[in-house]
């Protein structure tokens, strides 16, 4: 079995506010941010209805995490990747037209109430089981929110995403494991040290 990374990576644009979630903004402010991003050409994947979809996905993440007995400190998580996925910087990647940067932090900073996982990114994980076009890509881990112990078991079964998505169409959306961090306090302490 592959070694499971013991760190998380947060990707952001240099000069922007890192560790921010658009869903912490009201609809007017959030829409202004999205409009600004669209004008720069850096977020070609944004679509009408993105904000509503993002809010629906975050409600699912929060509610399913709470159903597992967890007590998130934040209403809206901060997004990280388990290990790294620097393909986000490559041509066509999430940050390919931006001035990218990243923050790497150890998982050991967080207790079990502070972190959840989806395999892959939460948006496709939420949508694949709910749409007809998602059916060819559907795997048992889609549509689920995992604790740290649970994601280890999923990785033991399916492995880490690696580059499978580059060569096999059924893995197209399974590019990385997303970590949702539900408490900023350990990060703030880490950044001050």
Q: Stretches where pLDDT falls below 50 for ≥5 residues? A: none
Number of helices: 6
Question: How is the largest sheet built, in terms of strand order?
Answer: 3-1-2-5-4
Number of strands: 5
Summarize model confidence as the mean pLDDT.
87
Q: Give the number of domains.
A: 1
Shape: globular
Span of the ends, CA to CA: 34 Å
Q: What is the helical fraction, as a range of percent? A: 25-40%
Order of helices and strands, N to C? EHHEEEHHHEH
Strand content: 5-15%
Q: Nearest-angstrom radius of gyration?
A: 16 Å
In this structure, how is the largest beta sheet organized?
A: 5 strands, antiparallel
Structural class of the helices, strands and pairings?
alpha+beta
Summarize the structure.
This protein is of the alpha+beta class and 193 residues long. The chain has one domain (7-192).
What does this structure look like?
A five-stranded antiparallel β-sheet has the order 3-1-2-5-4, with no helix packed on it. It is 32% helix and 14% strand. It is of the alpha+beta class and 193 residues long. The chain has one domain.
From the structure above, extract its key features:
single chain, 193 residues, alpha+beta, five-stranded antiparallel beta sheet, 32% helix, globular
How is the topology of this model organized?
Blueprint: E1 7-13, H1 27-40, H2 50-67, E2 78-82, E3 100-106, E4 115-118, H3 122-127, H4 148-158, H5 164-167, E5 178-181, H6 185-192
Antiparallel strand pairs: 1-2, 1-3, 2-5, 4-5
């Amino acid at each position: 079995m592959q070694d499971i990374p013991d760190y998380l990576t947060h990707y952001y644009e240099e000069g922007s506010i890192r560790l921010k979630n658009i869903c912490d903004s009201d609809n007017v402010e959030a829409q202004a941010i999205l409009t600004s991003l669209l004008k720069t050409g850096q977020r070609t994947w944004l679509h009408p209805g993105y904000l509503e979809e993002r809010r629906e996905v975050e409600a699912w993440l929060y509610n399913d995490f709470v159903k597992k007995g967890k007590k998130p400190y934040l209403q809206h998580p901060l997004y990280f990747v388990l290990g790294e996925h620097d393909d986000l910087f490559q041509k066509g990647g999430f940050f390919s037209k931006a001035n990218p940067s990243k923050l790497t932090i150890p998982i050991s900073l967080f207790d079990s109430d502070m972190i959840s996982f989806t395999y892959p990114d939460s948006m496709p994980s939420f949508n694949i089981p709910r749409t007809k076009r998602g059916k060819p890509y559907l795997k048992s881990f889609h549509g689920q929110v995992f604790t740290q112990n649970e994601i280890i078991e999923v990785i033991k079964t399916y492995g880490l995403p690696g580059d499978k998505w580059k060569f096999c169409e059924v893995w197209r959306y399974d590019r990385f494991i997303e970590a949702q961090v539900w408490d900023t306090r350990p990060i703030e302490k880490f950044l001050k040290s």
